[in-house]
Amino acid sequence: MGGLGAILLLVAAPPAVAALMRLPSIGSRRLPRDLLACAAVASTVIGLAALLGGCPVLGRAERFEVSLGPLDPAAAPAGAAWSLAPAAIALVFLAIALRTRTLALVGLAGAHLFVEVGAASAQLAAAPEAAGRGGLVVDPLAATLLGVSVLVGGVIIVYALAYPPVHLAQRGIDPARAGSSVAWLLVFVAAMNLLVLADDLRLLIVGWELTTLCSVMLIAFDGDAAALGAGRRALAYGLAGGVALGAAEWLAGPNARLSGLLVDGGGTAPVAVPLVLGGAILAAAMKSALVPFQGWLLGAMVAAAPVSALLHASAMVNAGSYLLMRLSPAIADQEPLGPLVVLLGAVSFAAAALAALRQHDLKRILALSTVSTLGLTTAAAGIGSSAALSAGLLLLVFHAVAKALAFLSVGTLEQATGTRELEDLAGALRTAPLLAAPLAIAAATLALPPFGLTVAKWAIIEAGARNVAFVVLLALGGAAYLALWTGVVGRLLVRRRSGSVARGAAEPGVVASADEASPGAPTPGRRLPRRQLAAVAVLAVASLGGLVLAAPLAAWLTDPAARTVVGSGAGPGLAAGWSVALGTGGFEVPLVAGLLLAASVAAVLAAARVRGEAPAAYLSGAGIAARPGTLHRAPGGRTALARSGGFYWGGGTLAWGSDSDAAGVPNGSVGRPAALVGWVLVASLVTAAVLAAVLLGTAGPGAPG
Amino acid sequence: MIPLDPLAALVVAGGTLLAPVAVGLLIGVDRKANAAVQLRVGPPVLQPLYDVTKLLAKASAGSDRVAAGLLAAHLVLAAGSFALILAGGDLLVAVLVLGAANLSFILAASAVESPFAQLGAGRELVVLVATEPLLILVVVAYALAAGSFSSAAIAAGSPYMVAVPTLALPLAVLLSATLRKSPFDLASSHHGHQELVKGSTTEMAGGWLAIAELGHWYEAAVILALIVLAAARLPVVAAALVAALYAIVIVADNTLPRATWRAALAIAWAVGGGGAAIALVTAVLASTKGAMG
Predict the structure, then answer these.
(1) Is residue B269's pLDDT more than 90?
(2) Residue A369 above 80 pLDDT?
(3) A475: distance to nearest CA of chain B, Å?
(4) Do B133 and A479 touch (CB under 8 A)?
(5) Is the preceding peptide bond at A572 cis, omega within 30 degrees of 0?
(6) CB spacing of A614 vs B73 below 8 angstroms
(7) B92 and A466 in contact by Cβ < 8 A?
(8) What is the pLDDT of residue A572?
(9) Cβ contact (<8 Å) for B100 and A474?
């Protein structure tokens, strides 16, 4: 099979353009920089189209091996180069670690280098593989991930072209560095493309380590203390994951392939197979920032919005989920590993969603909801049935689009208002509807049925229904997830009294308050670049398309992908016409979509019946809002963080529903002892459920019936 | 799958239209029963229906446009969730649609910056976090016992109360929360004697308040339908089940004080979640045994 040209467009063109951008004469000038970046994005899109033209995998459970020609690892000189490449990247990491002068990091980087050199020497000592097998594979799973990386990543890069100068100006950084940040984004997308196409482990690891490198460089890009700290943390997690994956490669033996691991261990000693898979799971958990490895992703929020979007939506974190899905049948075969991955995913889903409820920084909320969603895709990979895998992949695709939209709209809001604190943005949907609406759309597609995400969650619950611990965690997490987005949109929606302090914060182009202003902050009335708004609009339309697209996407992409991974014997897929169906139930997508549309029409009609000015809010004569600052503000007009408004778990004095609430009226109270007893019961319940699941051995796949 | 023949569609439409009347009557009886417990005469049984028609007929004072729209969406979605169950659709989908209805109502409550409404909206979120997991667990327990998520198949496979008796606990918690009775009345109480405890509905008046009330009645109808599904083939048993759970809820309302948000979560998850988890394990065991035997 050919396709070498397409692969080069996908994998080689973006780094080449990135290298050009590093030239000062191009990187510092806006027009050539933008044109080059757009050309690189276009080349990846053309590469994707050409690849899919040459390897027709859409709607078909077929698998094509693609050779890199003279560059393929099967060819002798190239094979040696690919074997040595991870060690070379490990050297770069060691250099970075030495520059940070952090002992732990240097140690980790040393261990990483040791593992990569060991793996490389094992590869070099072995006889090269018989020529003729390509090192890359195109199948529906790879094509889906590739589509996400190229299309969503492309939109993010177009947005980023207009974003960095403002971001840099706000932070007092030389605007000439803007080209460098876009260059790293391009390399990032190319590395992700290589990663999802790789079948040979060497290629996979090169892609894997390059995404780590790009993420570290982008997170630390701003160069201030916070960015450098977050970069160090991301490097630590990336290195730990790299050590795990490198050790897995070493154990798997020379010339190992992902497809080989699935068949019979691929020549790997049977004893080593669980260890290889364990290494891959650990690396994937670090990459996907699953609980308890979520630290780096939360820290990464210091980076610019496009970087966050790329990390969360189209690249980086998806790599972990992708690897687990690819290895899903092997993991499900290894008895303790399958249930463990299910539990790891379910715990991540519930814990991150519950933790997100107490956040008030929009980007942290988004980050935790990413961790939560990736937990669910991980659990789907652990369940391993065809339907669960298809649902997990569906979740990944819809999440990528919705989360990219959410991050870019938060970025736009932050640029326009200088803040991403939810409390400062309260009422933004009223005062700046165009800026805040995309975020509300993203929230709706994340939380409401029958958007693709909810359909996928539904399918995962039904597919894993027999695992009691899994269902309990999913029910808790699902409720928290719904409450989270309701709470966020509720704050954005509130009609504030005119004259309240936060009014300025929510208007486009107006800086919230003097202490939040920084050099180069946007001036009042500044218009946002059209390209940014266009990128947000494209993603918003794509997100809204998720209202009806669950079944078609399942039919064309995720069902065939699941079939190529687990074989056609592992149960039916999801798609059934325009609906999604499992053996025991069906999600009537058109019907529910019709209901949602009817509700929207009813809402519009009802709103149209309301005439005139709404009366002022009922304040019981307390005059609460007459002070400078409402209930949601501390004295002096400053934002009172977690203790201010909204529903935050960490609340103290002013949290809704605390023992003595805002108006000073004591509630009737069942009291702390009752709550304590309740929590003890909850803990024992979860333990009992886990034990029951383990004892019953019901953690395997299968729907009820 | 959902039946599409005209007669079934007519039954579903009729049932959905009549559901609020039935719930209104049930609440009327509930008030009478409560009054009897408290040695009062109490209002007529039809009083809740009178109240809603009176509110609907009122010339609406100014209201917030967004909140009004969201209340209408709440009504449509809650009714749709009930209709999905009646039509034999997937129970989990119906519960997800009910979640969307809850979301609309909470957004309507938080649309206006009245401290009371904001307080109510925040507490509605707590009640959502407390009860939504129970809904999902109840549905999964039914599905495991019946071997299907479709409400038609679940109804056909009933009764389940012998197989999974602890399901009564989450159902009672859900009924108490949906009727806004103590201890789950922290967001908005059915007793209207304090301005604070009307929380989420503080800023709603006239026809819009009636629409909010009708939406809540549909939510209650969904919970009642879930209770009835436990014994759908035996109407007398189903009615007795509803009466028994209602009695428990009335006793709890008259004896327990309003919970704080932490206590509400702990009680709902421990009592309701505990019952649901035991039911789930029982159902898995039973179906495993069934598959072996």
Answers:
(1) yes
(2) yes
(3) 4
(4) yes
(5) no
(6) no
(7) no
(8) 76
(9) no
Alpha-carbon gap: A572 to the closest alpha carbon of chain B (Å): 16
Amino acid at B23: V
Among positive and negative, which fits the CA dihedral A630, A634, A635, A639? Answer: negative
Residues in CB range of B5: below 8 A, 6 or more apart: none
pLDDT at A600 over 80: yes
Distances (CA, A) of A353 to A359, A475, A586, A594, B137: 10, 11, 26, 29, 18
Name residues whose C-beta falls within 8 Å of residue B1's C-beta, 6 or more positions apart in sequence.
A581, A586, A588, B88, B150
Query: Which range is most confident: A218-227, A514-523, B52-61, B283-292?
Result: A218-227
**Are A655 and A661 spatial neighbours (Cβ–Cβ below 8 Å)?**
no
* Residue of chain A nearest B103, judged by CA positions: A486
* Model ipTM value: 0.95
CB A410 within 8 A of CB A329: no
- With a pLDDT cut of 90, the percent of chain A lying above it is 47
3-state SS of A404-465? HHHHHHHHHHHHHHCCCECCCCCCHHHHCHHHHHHHHHHHHHHHCCCCHHHHHHHHHHHHCC
| Chain B residues touching A500 at Cβ < 8 A | 113
Query: What is the Cα B83 distance to its own chain's centre?
Result: 14
Q: Measuring CA to CA, how many Å separate B185 from each of B122, B128, B173, B178? A: 13, 12, 12, 9
Select the more confidently predicted residue: A464 or A677: A464
Q: Is A341 exposed, middle or buried (0-12, 13-18, 19+ CB in 10 A)?
A: buried
pLDDT interval class at A528 (50, 70, 90): confident
Q: Which of B56, B81, B85, B93 should be substituted to probe chain A, the one whose Cβ sees the most A Cβ atoms within 10 Å?
A: B93
Q: Is B65's CB within 8 Å of A600's CB?
A: no
pLDDT at residue A93, as a whole number: 96
Q: Bridge partners of A633?
A: A639
Predicted pLDDT at A592 = 94
Res A497 pLDDT > 80: no
Q: Which residue has the tokens 């984004």?
A: A185
A612 to chain B: nearest residue by CA? Answer: B62
- The pLDDT of residue A325 is above 80: yes
What is the largest distance, in Å, between two alpha-carbon atoms of chain A?
Answer: 86
Residue in chain B lying closest to A428 (CA): B111
CB of A401 within 8 A of CB of A453? Answer: no
> Do A284 and A386 touch, CB atoms closer than 8 A?
no
Cis (ω within 30 of 0) for the bond into B115?
A: no
Residue A51's pLDDT is 94
Does the pLDDT at position A623 exceed 60? no
Inter-chain touch A662–B134, beta carbons under 8 Å: no
Hey, what amino acid is at A551?
A
CB pairs under 8 A between A and B: 324
Q: Which residues contact residue A266 at a Cβ distance below 8 angstroms, ignoring those fewer than 6 apart? A: A252, A253, A256, A257, A259, A260
Nearest CA to CA, how far is A427 from chain B (Å)? 9
A647: nearest CA in chain B? B122
Q: Which residues of A touch B211 (CB under 8 A)?
A: 606
Q: What is the Cα–Cα distance from B71 to B68, expressed in whole angstroms? A: 5
Chain B residue numbers touching A495 (CB-CB < 8 A): 64, 66, 111-113
> What are the counts of helices (DSSP H) followed by strands (DSSP E) for chain B?
11, 0
- Do residue B136 and residue A630 have CB atoms under 8 angstroms apart? no
Half-sphere exposure for B272 (CA within 13 Å, toward CB)? 29
A654: tokens are 């002013």
Cβ contact, residue pair B258, A669, below 8 Å:
yes
Nearest CA to CA, how far is A496 from chain B (Å)?
Answer: 6
Token pair of A405 as six digits: 């939209």
Predicted local distance difference test score (pLDDT) of residue A79: 87
Stretch B20-47: mean pLDDT: 92
Residue A25: Cβ-neighbour burial (10 angstroms; 0-12, 13-18, 19+): exposed
